[in-house]
Design brief:
Strand content of chain B: 5-15%
CATH architecture of the largest domain in chain A: Alpha-Beta Barrel
CATH superfamily of the largest domain in chain A: Metal-dependent hydrolases
Family (chain B): Belongs to the aspartate/ornithine carbamoyltransferase superfamily. ATCase family.
Structural class of chain B: alpha/beta
Distance between the termini of chain A: 17 Å
CATH topology of the largest domain in chain B: Rossmann fold
Enzyme class (chain B): transferase
Number of strands of chain A: 19
Helix content of chain B: 25-40%
Helix content of chain A: 25-40%
Shape of chain A: globular
Number of domains of chain B: 2
Strand order of the largest sheet of chain B: 7-6-5-8-9
Pathway (chain B): Pyrimidine metabolism; UMP biosynthesis via de novo pathway; (S)-dihydroorotate from bicarbonate: step 2/3
Oligomer: heterodimer
CATH class of the largest domain in chain B: Alpha Beta
Largest interface: A-B, 23 and 29 residues
Keywords (chain B): Pyrimidine biosynthesis, Transferase
Function (chain B): Catalyzes the condensation of carbamoyl phosphate and aspartate to form carbamoyl aspartate and inorganic phosphate, the committed step in the de novo pyrimidine nucleotide biosynthesis pathway.
Number of helices of chain B: 11
Structural class of chain A: alpha/beta
Number of helices of chain A: 11
Largest sheet of chain B: 5 strands, parallel
Number of strands of chain B: 9
């Protein structure tokens, strides 16, 4: 028997305070001065209510790297970050390139129960970029895969990319491209700029991302399919996506919180906690990403949450793994970079972190308005709070956050997944 | 002086000049029958080499031994793909052995920086070459060699020619020579100059013949043949024609101009035998000076605030 919750005086999308009544997994009433017998009261005074966040880009590492993260721990981190749905990337071991693996990940998510897990299917067998994986089988499986990606690797072969874009049309899928021209980025370690030359770290030039995005936009237009661009990191990429959208092409794009805040100057420390792919870029790129996210050129914020065990980060930069944690800090980083700067209001945040990603992933039960009759996926967020990031406090099995010791605004107070709290008082429920 | 020597850019002009004058004092030891000083007796210096470099290791070893330090050579070969013991565990081991200084050569740019700053070890760290980043003691011995031949380096023109992109020697030299007032020109085909080199505060040129007549120093860098396979240049012959230093080009140099090479040379590629063996060539002397400069660095890092040799010092601050 599910509990009835009455959230009092929460500011829906940052607007006026209202009460939200949650019964049987749905929002049954929204308005002032609601009451319900036997309802558990949740004090929403001063909190912003947003639809449960949806991440299009999460690495849960299971199966294969359960030392770094599991579906259980990763979704705990997700819930603590205000997410009610995550898309689990396919670069596991074995790769999520069959119906069997995606169903396993999907089932693990259901069993854990912290957050819905929607597996992403690999585009090519073993992420090898040679032949298509059974995309249809994954789409038809219990996991109902709609997002396909070789993330971590680029589908660099133009013919294969064209075929993938065409093929997913049969089930309204989308190809999420990790845009990285492989030859231009062999052994690349950081953004190619003046700093990479000085530090003696092999450069990852912006053109390697932009060239692939431009090609893929043209391919998507040519075959009239749906392209999603993962982790856009450069000003040039924003311009290309803006151009593609101006043509009316079906192209969407995501930016990661770390690319909205941090720059390649962090490499001066040679601390590989800042090593990520695509790399941290210049301040001008950060500005362009923020502007693109504000004007809708970039549709969504996605975390690219990438857990790694300590030893893979406690070493030489060149030997270290790419990637950083993101789920538990994403909303705070978006507040710091977009809301507190006046670039986005909370409705804009809800659109970019919930509505749009759900739409791109074709999730009917997420990214819905906070209104009567809708599924009760809700996050309550205290935008007035501040906290200092302590890596040992994360629910993730890994500790590779680049924000350790940094003071960030905001705190997730509660997360509801279909009417059931997964987080209450900032702790796992 | 700072506790570590990680980058030539960390040295102030005073630091650099102190090292050069100390090296000058110590160099005179080489002419004495007994080449040893007691300055670092009882101190332990570890040569930690993650990458083969016989000549650099021997140079540091000779330097440490002439200062009476105990020397431990630790070869921990391994690439990023076949990692052996981690840098961290190696550092902890050396710390437990009580190393006073660690001289580190590593294939990864920034490894000495990590060793000095990650909190694994309290030793002084000397960068003996890291990846394609820096090789500060090479720059110091190069500056020392120039200084002995040309005196003050203010306004002197130094051409550094060759594979600047992959050269830690070029990076350290560019930084140090600027500090010492010299004007540096990096000469290479555009493919072998780093992206963003405009921000380094040095001149660049694609035209060796245009640069040579004005140079006081010509420093040739090694160019690996294999670079050809990654399309940095079309053929060895074309590279040599455009950027190699041969007898014909040497004839355009000023009378006092010296020719340097950090070694190992590839004769016939970036430099011809007649140039390498000519009177202008100070390549062998660079090796001798390397020991003196490394002695000075170790001496100063490990607490030698007093002049190394002369008892009638001019004062030590």
């Amino acid at each position: 028997m599910s509990t009835t919750y009455l959230i009092r005086n929460a500011r829906i999308l940052g607007g006026d305070a209202a009460d939200i009544l949650v019964e049987d997994g749905r929002i049954t009433e929204v308005g002032a001065g609601l009451s319900a017998d036997g309802a558990e009261i949740v004090d929403g005074e001063g909190l912003v209510a947003l639809p449960g966040l949806v991440d299009l880009h999460t690495h849960l590492r299971e199966p294969g790297r359960e030392d770094a993260e599991t579906v259980d721990t990763g979704t705990q981190a997700a819930a603590l970050g205000g997410f009610t749905a995550v898309h689990a990337m396919a670069n596991t071991d074995p790769v999520a390139d069959t119906a069997g693996v995606v169903e396993q990940v999907w089932r693990l998510g259901r069993e854990a129960g912290h957050c819905d897990v929607f597996p992403v299917g690999a585009v090519t067998v073993g992420l090898q970029g040679e032949r298509l994986a059974e995309l249809g089988a994954m789409a038809d499986s219990a996991a109902r895969v709609r997002v396909f990606s070789d993330d971590g690797k680029c589908v660099s072969d133009a013919v294969l990319m064209r075929r993938a874009l065409e093929y997913v049309k049969a089930f309204d899928g989308v190809v999420a491209q990790h845009a990285q021209e492989p030859r231009l980025t062999e052994d690349a370690q950081m953004n190619e700029g003046e700093l990479s030359g000085r530090l003696g770290l092999r450069g990852w030039p912006a053109v390697a991302e932009e060239a692939i995005i431009a090609r893929d936009c043209l391919l998507a237009a040519h075959v009239d399919s749906r392209l999603h661009v993962c982790h856009v990191s450069t000003a040039g990429s924003v311009e290309i996506v803006r151009w593609a959208k101006s043509k009316g092409w079906n192209v969407t794009a995501e930016a990661c919180p770390h690319h909205l805040l941090l720059t390649d100057e962090k490499a001066l420390t040679y601390d590989p906690i800042y090593k990520v792919n695509p790399p941290l870029r210049s301040a001008a790129d950060v500005e362009a990403l923020r502007a693109g996210l504000a004007d809708g050129t970039i549709d969504v914020v996605a975390t690219d949450h990438a857990p790694h065990p300590h030893e893979d980060k406690d070493c030489e930069w060149q030997a270290a793994a790419f990637g950083m944690l993101g789920l538990e800090t994403a909303l705070s980083i978006v507040q710091a970079t977009m809301v507190d700067t006046g670039l986005l209001d909370w409705a804009g945040v809800a659109e970019r972190m919930s509505t749009k990603p759900a739409e791109i992933g074709r999730l009917s039960g997420h990214g819905r308005p906070l209104a009567a009759g809708e599924p009760a996926n809700i996050v309550l967020y205290d935008a007035g709070a501040t906290r200092v990031v302590d890596p040992t406090e994360t629910a993730s099995l890994s500790r590779n956050t680049p924000y350790a010791g940094m003071e960030l605004p905001g705190r997730v107070v509660a997360t509801f997944l279909r009417g059931k709290p997964t987080v209450l008082d900032g702790k796992l429920a | 002086m700072k506790k570590h020597l990680l980058s030539a850019g960390d040295l102030s002009r005073d630091d650099a000049e102190l090292i050069l004058t100390t090296a000058e004092e110590l160099r005179s030891l080489a002419d004495r029958p007994i080449k040893k000083l007691p300055a670092l007796r009882g101190r332990t210096i570890v040569n930690l080499f993650f990458e083969d470099s016989t000549r650099t290791r021997i140079s540091f070893e000779a330097a440490a031994k002439r200062l009476s330090a105990d020397v431990i050579n630790f070869s921990a070969k391994g690439s990023s793909l076949s990692k052996g013991e981690s840098l961290k565990d190696t550092a902890l081991t050396l710390e437990a052995m009580g190393a006073d200084a660690v001289v580190v050569r590593h294939w990864a740019s920034g490894a000495p920086h990590l060793l000095a700053n990650a909190g694994w070890s309290k030793s002084s760290v000397v960068n003996a070459g890291d990846g394609t980043h820096e090789h500060p003691t090479q720059a110091l011995l190069d500056a020392f060699t120039m200084w002995r031949h040309l005196g003050n380096l203010d306004g002197r023109r130094v051409a550094i020619v060759g594979d600047v992109l992959h050269s830690r020697v070029a990076r350290s030299n560019a930084l140090l020579l600027r500090t010492l007032g010299a004007e540096v020109t990096l000469v290479a085909p555009p493919t072998l100059l780093p992206y963003g080199v405009d921000g380094w505060g040095v001149e660049t040129s694609y035209d060796l013949d245009g640069v040579l007549p004005k140079a006081d120093v010509v420093m040739m860098l090694r160019v690996q043949r294999e670079r050809m396979n990654a399309a940095f240049f079309p053929t060895v012959r074309e590279y040599s024609r455009r950027y190699g230093l041969d007898g014909r080009r040497m004839a355009n140099l000023q009378d006092h101009t010296i020719v340097m090479h950090p070694g190992p040379m590839i004769r016939g590629m970036e430099i011809t035998a007649d140039v390498a063996d000519s009177d202008r060539s100070v390549i062998v002397e660079q090796v001798t000076n390397g020991v003196a400069v490394r002695m000075a660095v170790l001496y100063l890092l490990l607490g030698g605030s007093e002049p190394a040799l002369s008892k009638n010092a001019e004062g030590d601050e």
